[in-house]
From TrEMBL:
Residues 666-740 form the ACT domain. This is Bifunctional (P)ppGpp synthetase/guanosine-3',5'-bis(Diphosphate) 3'-pyrophosphohydrolase. Residues 336-369, 493-596 are annotated as: Disordered. GO terms for biological process: guanosine tetraphosphate metabolic process. It comes from Streptomyces argyrophylli. GO terms for cellular component: plasma membrane.
């Protein structure tokens, strides 16, 4: 009660008194393995939480946390005497019986606690304090049991304490686990700390006095403390730096009143002392995902020793030590007490409700961070206890988070190292099976692209509900939610997901997804009226040659709208490959020459020919290279073929645009398959007054269709408007200029 009143002077202590009376009478006669009365355990657990500043409801439940599990007290009795919140917290930490669950009792107990934590984070606060006291008194257990409990604490509870920001519990748990699992290294570290304490003089104390003087002169009210490192921290520093010096055994902590004072202290220290710039981190402007805020810096002493300094406000320090425990009761009624219609993922009947949620369904309070929401989501898809237990440990081992943004402004929290595959399953769940690509920061990207903090991700979703994930996606799935969903689909569809190559993102040639049929005979049926036209039509690829064709296939003629055919007769005529014989009309006479933009060449008598690989148009920056017959091919300056020819020693020839703005260009459109797509695209092109010289529509792969059009523009200035018109066609998600890699010898 005294510890509680230190943080909450006005707290009503009557519930604590009644909870103690019930706990003491219920546990009377029970003894711990150490020989102490059992009531000493719930008292110790409650004291741990009281010293961290937990509110009254948490302490009441903490006193009662073992009564339902170990005595005749029932949850109904707890509800009748202390209310629904206390009942929910006690139920959340009550273990499942081994009689009912056998070997699965431990993982299923943790699953139950995590689901309960998703609705009230105070459940996990009580569990962490419970485990800390048990670890403090673990010496009475058999060595093998000590080791088993220590490993679970290391793999599950310490990461949870870190993610919930309860550093005071996390650091002590780390030291207790260190002593059990690595006794020799623990003893060596203890000796190092003892030797340092016996040395005359303390360099940290000297620097602390110097810092106090600097801040006193600057007029910034601050408290400067020395924070000794705990055993595991000293061990890590020793492994990193080798020989330890006096300043390696602790850090300075500067506590101020206002956020602005933190930066004032930083400025004074960097002005009056020698800063170590590489050690600076600003966790105030960008807090850690576990609520932690602080400025980290370091200053160098004249003797070369480096002193780490933490700068934070008193409130930041409270949160840094106690994490979510310091937030009080985040479920207390606020001014807006509306309750969301749909409970949070993993909700359990009878759980207290948060006072509202934002539009995207995430919890409004900071105690329901993204990592917890993700954990609750994937645990529902892991019914097998062994899968849940192993996946939980792997998930909690990922201790860094990134935030990526959706185009609508929403955010996704993901573990560091996540890919577009992970983002897809985080946003769409199992509907992500239909994902066919992504845009990262506005650029098309493969699903294997690793995301960085702050990226904007637009996921491109197909429209076929029977879409299938690729087996190769497992190589790029970083989150449990993605891996479980993919593995579950593959397990139920053993014949699917067997494509040997990674699925290409939009704009990548040759990519097919698992289960996708690329047979030309089925292309029209799968993509709607989207035929595969004459294969000899120009695609812009180097060395694309084919025998002349009298016209498109019958399927293409049936699918192509008659109005478009009449308006663009040249769309059925293949373009000649570079160096091929001139085209002939039906009567055998030479076909009319194609109209092209004028290009002036800095070589007398040389003719210019626009390269088919990049189809330059005014006002593109261009360059030229001589080929056989005195012809100069003109490329866009950024064309990949330019770099290739330069690497082979080919000399550039100066070229520039003439006065004629008429030009020919090749565009590639990426789209989802749907009926009448080709008709709509050609109509959009015709509406811009542009002639279609040739067109190719590749067989669809997983609802994704690529169209290649060679177009004659009356004016190059019309190109941006043409590309916008094509992008506005429903189902088209990208239109770009053709750009292909040159052939290698």
């Amino acid at each position: 009660m005294e510890a509680h009143r230190a943080h909450h002077p006005d707290a009503d202590l009557e519930p604590l008194r009644r909870a103690y009376v019930l706990a003491e009478s219920s546990h009377r006669g029970q003894m711990r393995k150490s020989g102490e009365p059992y009531i000493t355990h719930p008292l110790a657990v409650t004291l741990i939480l009281a010293e961290l500043g937990a509110e009254t409801t948490t302490l009441t439940a903490s006193l009662l946390h073992d009564t339902v599990e170990d005595t005749e007290v029932t949850l109904d009795q707890v509800r009748e005497q202390f209310g629904e919140e206390v009942r929910y917290l006690v139920d959340g930490v009550t273990k499942l019986e081994k009689v009912d669950y056998g070997a699965a009792a431990e993982p299923e107990t943790f699953r139950k606690m995590l689901v309960a934590t998703g609705n009230d984070v105070r459940v996990m606060s009580i569990k962490l304090a419970d485990r800390l006291h048990n670890m403090r008194t673990l010496g009475v257990m058999r060595p093998e049991k000590q080791e088993r409990i220590a490993k679970v604490t290391r793999d599950v509870l310490i990461p949870l304490a870190e993610r919930l920001g309860v550093q005071a519990l996390k650091t002590e748990l780390e030291d207790l686990v260190f002593a059990i699992l690595h006794p020799e290294e623990y003893e060596h570290t203890r000796e190092l700390i003892a030797e340092n304490a016996a040395r005359p003089g303390d360099p940290l104390a000297e620097v602390a006095d110097e810092v106090r003087g600097v801040l006193r002169e600057s007029g910034i009210p601050a408290e400067v403390l020395i924070r000794p490192r705990h055993f595991v921290s000293v061990h890590r520093v020793a492994r990193k730096r080798g020989q330890l010096r006096g300043t390696d055994f602790g850090r300075l902590l500067v506590l101020v009143n206002e956020d602005a004072d933190c930066y004032g202290v930083l400025g004074e220290l960097h002005t009056c002392m020698t800063p170590v710039v590489s050690e600076f981190k600003d966790f105030i402007a960008v807090p850690k995902f576990n609520l932690y805020q602080s400025l980290h810096t370091a200053v160098a002493r004249p003797d070369g020793q480096m002193v780490e300094v933490l700068i934070r406000t008193h409130q930041m320090h409270k949160v840094a030590e106690a994490g979510v425990v310091a937030l009080g009761n985040p479920y207390a009624p606020a001014a807006d007490t509306s309750v969301p219609d749909t409970p949070a993922s993993g909700a359990t009947a009878g759980a207290p409700s948060s006072s509202g949620a934002p539009a995207d369904g995430e919890r409004a309070d900071p105690t329901r961070p993204g990592w917890l929401s993700r954990l609750l989501d994937w645990q529902q898809a892991a019914p097998d206890p062994d899968t849940f237990w192993s996946t939980l440990r792997a998930d909690l081992a990922q201790d860094r988070e990134i935030t990526v943004f959706r185009p609508d402004g929403g955010a996704l929290g993901l573990p560091e190292g996540s890919t577009c595959v992970d983002a897809a399953y985080a946003q769409y769940g199992e509907d992500a099976h239909a994902c066919i690509g992504a845009r990262v920061n506005g650029r098309l990207a493969t699903l294997s692209t690793v995301l960085r903090d702050g990226d904007t991700v637009q996921l491109l979703m197909g429209q076929d509900p029977a879409s299938e994930p690729s087996r190769e996606w497992l190589e790029h799935a970083h989150t449990p939610a993605a891996r479980i969903a993919i593995q579950r689909w593959l397990a139920t569809h053993p014949a699917g997901g067997t494509d040997p190559a990674e699925p290409a993102g939009p704009g990548e040639p040759g990519g097919t997804r698992a289960g996708a049929s690329a047979e030309p005979g089925t292309a029209s049926a799968r993509a709607g009226n989207t035929p595969s036209t004459d294969p000899a039509a120009t695609t812009g690829r180097p060395a694309a040659t084919a025998a002349p064709s009298a016209g498109p296939s019958a399927a293409a003629r049936r699918a192509e709208p008659s109005g478009t055919r009449a308006a663009t007769p040249s769309a059925r005529r293949p373009s000649a490959a570079p160096g091929a014989a001139p085209e002939r009309a039906a009567d055998g006479a030479p076909a009319p020459r194609s109209r092209r933009a004028d290009v002036l060449v800095d070589r007398p008598g040389a003719a210019a020919r626009l390269a088919g690989c990049c189809t330059p148009v005014p006002p593109d920056e261009i360059t030229g290279f001589a080929v056989r017959g005195g012809v100069v091919t003109v490329h866009r300056a950024e064309c990949a073929a330019v770099a290739h020819m330069k690497s082979r020693g080919r000399a550039e020839i100066g070229v520039r645009w003439g006065d004629t703005a008429e030009c020919r260009v090749t565009l590639v459109a990426e789209s989802f398959g749907r009926p009448h797509l080709l008709a709509d695209l050609t109509e959009a092109i015709a509406s811009q007054g542009v002639e279609i010289v040739s067109a190719t529509v590749e067989p669809p792969t997983q609802q994704r269709v690529r169209h290649t059009y060679t177009l004659q523009l009356p004016d190059a200035a019309h190109l941006p408007a043409l590309m916008r018109a094509m992008r506005d066609v429903p189902g088209v998600y990208d239109v770009r200029r053709a750009q292909h890699q040159p052939r290698t010898s």
